[in-house]
Amino acid sequence: MVMRISSAESAHLLWSSGEGVGRNRLVSPTSRSGRNTPPCLQLPCICHLQQGYDAPHQPRCSLLRRPGATRCICVQRVPDSMCSSQMGASRRGLRVMASVLLSLGLLLATGWSAPVSPAVRTGFSSLVVFGDSFSDNGKGYATTKHAWPSDPAYYKGRFSNGPVWPEDLAETLSVPLYDYAQGGATTDNGIIQGYTGPKSDILVPSLTDQVADFLAKKPVKDLASSLVILFGGVNDALGNSNITAARSAGVIGRLVRKLRDAGALHFILVNVPDLSLMPYDAYIEADQQDVLRDYAEHLGYQLRRVAQRITSASVQVVDLIPLFRSFNVYDKGWKAAGFDKFGLYGSCLVGGYSEAPRSLCSDADRHVFWDEYHPSRKTHALIAEEIRKNL
């Protein structure tokens, strides 16, 4: 059997499964036997340029070789002349797509254009998100009757200058998004009450409340095929320096079990970035920064314990600490992502929380943070990509 996968650029790959049981081979249009390859060198690269993640016009393609199988993986679309000379150059493209290939038994030739990727076929029917302002796509703005965030530089009620990562990821997966996240949310208002608004006096539903609301309304027909993501804990730490990461993780674990019992089978728990890196931390003492750093690190550990203990469901943890730390001036992550050398330090918008004087940078895509607390749209796109790699 030969299945043809074609792109709008007339590039195509041929997937063959015919030489023995379980032996799948990728064969090129010029060599139907699949022998005397590497086949990727004979194929156009079906990908798309990931602006702001790799250097402009840098192709990223990989070969996957296994006994009895050779597969070509392309994760950016670039001109054929550029692609052929750099096949196999990036191991990262291999990691991004290999798990999808092996689990689905298909070759997915797809790509990524900031801030979102073209559709990736994963079998999920919808994306369900619970969280705080890091994941809020405008629900909190509606809660405050369009009063917060108040600065006109914020994008359509998001706490950023563009779409947030759930929107990026949902478009990448080509699935509907059910985003219950709200700015100011904690994991559980019984532990610490979340607030929002210009005066921080408007009550916010916690992740616990969000899950209860979701289960009561049942907007998703097939929860078993949905991808459910929980991303919380930032406001637990910011609102109460005495709260432990274990307690926050315990709440998240309880919510996962409740959703699992309702039929959900696929979960991702997102750990917060190193909270001591937020521009806000320039206004607090060093010992408080240490508390925030320790909380983030311990929360990641506790979430991994939660994932290990939950049975009858797939639970993965995506830790954002390494991603954000890679943007520091001493690492190379900032350059690969297209940020300014000092893009991790400070924010594009200053004054979003009524600080004076207000200022706005000329190029937000050179900054990791949009304001004193929240990622820029470019960073949101990178968060979405980081999550996608774990699918």
Ordered list of secondary-structure elements with their pairings:
Elements: E1 2-6, E2 12-17, E3 24-27, E4 61-66, E5 69-74, H1 80-83, H2 91-104, E6 126-131, H3 139-143, H4 165-173, E7 177-179, E8 194-196, E9 202-204, H5 207-217, E10 226-231, H6 234-239, H7 245-261, E11 266-271, H8 286-309, E12 314-319, H9 321-325, H10 333-337, E13 349-350, E14 359-360, H11 377-388
Overview of this protein structure:
It is a single chain. This protein is an alpha/beta fold and 391 residues long. It has two domains: 2-104, no CATH class; 126-388, 3-Layer(aba) Sandwich (Rossmann fold), CATH 3.40.50. It contains eleven helices and 14 strands. A five-stranded parallel beta sheet has the order 7-6-10-11-12, with helices on both faces. It has a three-stranded antiparallel beta sheet with strand order 1-2-3, with no helix packed on it. Helix 4 (165-173) crosses helix 11 (377-388), helix 5 packs parallel to helix 7 and helix 7 (245-261) packs parallel to helix 8 (286-309).
Mean pLDDT equals 77
Placed side by side, the strands forming the largest sheet appear as 7-6-10-11-12
Instruction: Supply the number of helical segments.
Output: 11
Strand content: 15-25%
Q: Main β-sheet: number of strands, strand sense, barrel status?
A: 5 strands, parallel
Q: H/E series, N to C?
A: EEEEEHHEHHEEEHEHHEHEHHEEH
Computed structural class: alpha/beta
Q: Give the full name of the CATH homologous superfamily of the largest domain.
A: SGNH hydrolase
The CATH class assignment of the largest domain is Alpha Beta
What's the count of strands? 14
Radius of gyration: 22 Å
Number of domains: 2
- CATH architecture call of the largest domain: 3-Layer(aba) Sandwich
Low-confidence stretches: 1-119
Multimerization status: single chain
The geometry reads as globular
Between the first and last Cα atoms, what is the distance in angstroms? 27 Å
CATH topology of the largest domain: Rossmann fold
What percent of the residues sit in helical stretches (DSSP H or I)? 25-40%
Organism: Ophiocordyceps camponoti-floridani
Protein name: GDSL-like Lipase/Acylhydrolase
GO molecular function, one term: hydrolase activity, acting on ester bonds
Pfam families: Lipase_GDSL (PF00657)
